[in-house]
Amino acid sequence: MASVSKVDALSTEEQLIAATLQGNDDAFRRIVDRYMDEVSRTVTGMLGAGPEIDDVVQEVFIKLHRSLHTFRGDAALKTFIIRMAINKSLDALRKRKRMRWLQPWAHDDPWEPPSEETSDAHLTQQEDYVHLRRAVDQLPEGQRAVVILRLLEECSTEETALILNIPYGTVLSRLKRGVDKLKKHIETTPESRRSGGAL
Amino acid sequence: MSYKNDVTARKEGPDQGLSPDLVNDLRRMVDDERARSMMSMPSERVMRAIRASIAAQRATFLERELVSWFRPVLALGVMVIMMLAVYNFDLSRQNDHPQTPAEMVLGLQPVTVAAAYDIEFDHHD
Fold first, then answer.
1. What is the rounded CA–CA span in Å between residue A53 and residue A51?
2. Which end of chain A has fewer CB atoms surrounding its CB within 10 Å, N or C?
3. Would the CB atoms of A199 and B25 count as touching at under 8 Å?
4. B55 touches chain A (CB under 8 A)
5. CB A198 within 8 A of CB B25
């Protein structure tokens, strides 16, 4: 059994989990620090920029804290956490759809916080990101999750299949279809035709 | 933001066929979106949210416990009220005066003009 009285930056995942289950807040904070990047990247990849990102990331870690006792160690902790991030993101997407249905008058413009930088290069880049985001948003949920996990999180096909609980072959086909759709959408944007590049 | 591999250096497998530009643009876009969307010190805020969630869970637990303790008291109270109503109804039926069902259940004494002006309060049969 791992020592749970003290944890440090070198503590293993098993030690951190055991310490957290014994009520050690510092241990859970270290888990949060280790996986904050992965979780926030996955959630942002799935949802895009928006004020709800922070809330969804928090919900993922709250759920993790509540269900850490169910983690049996069959898979890596990262797989367990990323699965929660994907599920919470899918919940948020469905909630967004419901809100759109309830408030059809609400506009669909991408969320833009105030930016002080107004240089041409920055504006062009932002415009490119908006087009890419539109392309990602048009992917069905399943394809989007595969694209985010494989391209953004650099999960292997096996890991992606495990996280999404789908067969290996389905990951491959969804990735292929998702990437094809992204490329097709990007190629049809005026900016892409103008520059002649992928983006 | 660091990634395990730069996609330009990665050998594309049969399941990929990905454009490195597309992957890198996707990563840059998400990093940009994340920088715009996330507030500072996310870990600190997560820990605060977890503490608040635990406190809320404890409050809910206490609420549930209180409800479970008071459930028998509530059932007993309802039973006593029902018994009183039946008793009142039964007693009221023995009166000669006409009464409404509400008056009978509540055990209200019949009030008539004659009774209101009856000055012999101590007179009982």
1. 6
2. N
3. yes
4. no
5. yes
- B51-102 confidence digits (pLDDT tens): 998 888 888 888 888 888 999 999 999 999 999 999 999 888 887 777 888 8
Instruction: For residue B59, give the amino acid letter.
Output: A
Interface of A with B in 84-103 (CB under 8 A): none
- Please name the residues in contact with A87: beta carbons below 8 A apart, sequence gap of 6 or more: none
Domains A7-103 and A119-194 share a fold: no
**DSSP annotation string for B2-50:** --SS-GGGSPP-TTT---HHHHHHHHHHHHHHHHHHPPS-HHHHHHHHH
Does A46 lie at the interface with B, CB-CB under 8 angstroms?
no
Interface check B90 vs A, CB under 8 A: no
- CB of B41 within 8 A of CB of A58? no
ipTM of the prediction greater than 0.90, yes or no: no
Question: What is the number of CB-based contacts under 8 A between chain A and chain B?
Answer: 113
Pick the CATH number of A7-103 from 3.40.50.1360, 3.30.70.890, 1.10.1740.10, 2.40.50.140: 1.10.1740.10
| Cβ pair B47, A25 in contact under 8 A | yes
Give tens-digit pLDDT for B26-56. 999 999 999 988 888 888 899 999 999 888 8
The kind and range of the H/E element at A126 are helix A120-137
Contact B37 A50 (CB under 8 A): yes
CATH architecture of A119-194: Orthogonal Bundle (1.10)
Instruction: Please state, in angstroms and rounded to a whole number, the distance separating the CA atoms of residues B33 and B25.
Output: 12
Query: CB contact, 8 Å: B11 with chain A?
Result: no
What pTM, to 2 d.p., does this model score?
Answer: 0.70
